[in-house]
Amino acid sequence: MAEAKGHVLVTGGAGYIGSHTCKALAAAGYGPVVLDSMVHGHPWAVQWGPLVEGDVRDAQLLDSVFALFRPVAVLHFAALTSVGESVADPGPYYDNNLGGALALLEAMRRAGCPAVVFSSTAAVYGDPAVPGAPMDENHPLAPVNPYGRAKLAVERMLADYGAAYGLRHMSLRYFNAAGADPEGELGEEHDPETHLVPLAIGAALGTRGPLRVFGQDYPTPDGTCVRDYVHVADLARAHVLALGHLARGGPSGALNLGTGRGNSVREVLAAVERASGRPVPCEPAPRRAGDPGALVAAAGRARAVLGWSPDLTDLDSIVSTAWRWHAARA
Ligand code: NAD
Ligand code: UDP
To answer: Is there a single domain that holds both residue 52 and residue 168?
Structure first.
């Protein structure tokens, strides 16, 4: 039953979004095979299929994985993910995120694997042309950091491989992934952690210091940054839909994944306080370099193309799942 639709290779499947997607894949009848270097992955997150420990830049390893499992498609999550780190030290971002994607696409060509879903990001857009306005997929692509530039380069590589070799592909541009598996089997754990929701929960639990609120003077209703927080289980479901779309011969392209609703840092902190019943100790801090004031998705194309829209649209529901995960492990 678990493999009725065939194996899917999930690079980075021991990480946050990849592991939630493996659970959704298994529920939909695919057999996920995780390839993860474990540089930021967790053994406990690999629960729905085998783990091949290794690097996506390892061509020989990729050939053996394709030969052994004959995956019907690839979901490519494996990447370094810290924007700030990519500014300070861009080399590993181009090597791992761009070089890794190139090695993967070449192995797919050799193996004749026809389709890939790529973890792209809102960072391919850069600063919104109209501050605060939702950005659709036609927004100019002007990333402002090496992380976003490497992701955009992969999107363009996918288009070239599609045109020349017939590779079918979907780039999913996530906005801010948040929350945890509603059944409590998975959650978010990055080391070092840079994301707002887990840091705020850690502050509420007392396992981390006070939350530093980066910037109080943005042109937003309460002066703090606004982001579009989308639940990780909704992201996972979008990948399953994208696989079906490509398998049916649907057109390749790029889609935003967000809720279309923005919440400020202060609204997130209030939601953590409601979920936890505890105060979130916080302190004002300067703006973080490279942070646009507001990033909100226009997500209508994902609905039109995939029939996807998020199930969990309100911040309290999203944050509650994260709170339950962290509180159970504290
Ligand atoms: P994560 O760090 O939890 O997962 C990434 C996984 O990739 C890790 O398990 C890591 O060990 C693995 N990995 C890294 N380099 C590898 C390599 N060369 N070979 C094999 N495995 C490798 O990150 P995440 O938050 O789950 O993000 C998943 C993807 O989604 C990334 O591509 C990221 O850029 C993208 N993304 C994330 C967000 C977000 O809000 N978390 C937003 C937009 C895009
Ligand atoms: N943020 C913050 N304090 C923190 C971490 C994040 O104020 O300790 C803010 C950050 O400036 C951004 C929002 O929270 O506006 C979301 O940041 P995160 O790092 O979670 O995701 P990003 O938007 O950078 O992808």
So the answer is: yes
